[in-house]
Specification:
- By secondary structure, the protein is mainly beta.
- The protein has a domain of 100 residues: Nucleic acid-binding proteins (OB fold (Dihydrolipoamide Acetyltransferase, E2P), Beta Barrel).
- Strands 1-3-4-6-5 form a five-stranded mixed β-barrel.
């Protein structure tokens, strides 16, 4: 099985290209993914992973993803090789994104100046009741 799940921050805005044969959109970007552990006395390190998103997934990424955003990507690892004009063989390993998601919190998006219209917590359409069924104060002892 070849399945990759990543969450990290975009190191640059997605770059869009189109294939020559059938004009399919391809978006390329890189994710900075923090390693789980840091050595004592050292800063946490990150891996910079190249991502390629095709067609509709690539269109979504190119339209909504920006440098610095935290995103989640689900896909597969792919390796490819090619020879350049001088006959040198090149190898590249990348993740082909099959799914892509926003991973920033609403507050992070708001703080970064992004304007996302998110209606979580609003009342149902047509409802005039704005009260809550329960109220939690900061003094309550919550089990989580």
């Amino acid at each position: 099985m070849n399945k990759v799940v990543l969450m990290g921050r975009l190191t640059r805005d997605p770059e869009v290209r189109y294939t020559q044969t059938n004009n399919t959109l391809v978006a390329s970007f890189s994710l900075a993914v923090n390693r789980r552990f840091a050595r004592q006395g050292e800063e946490r390190q990150a891996d910079f992973i190249n991502i390629v998103a095709w067609a509709k997934t690539g269109e979504f990424c190119s339209k909504y993803f920006k440098k610095g955003q935290q995103v989640g990507v689900i896909g597969r690892i792919q390796t490819r090789t090619w020879d350049d004009d001088q006959g040198t063989k090149h190898y590249v390993t990348e993740v082909v994104a099959e799914e892509a998601y926003f991973a920033d919190s609403k507050r992070d998006s708001y703080d970064s100046g992004e304007s996302f219209n998110n209606n979580f917590g609003d009342t149902m359409p047509g409802s005039t009741d704005t009260s809550s069924d329960f109220e939690v104060s900061s003094d309550d002892d919550l089990p989580f």
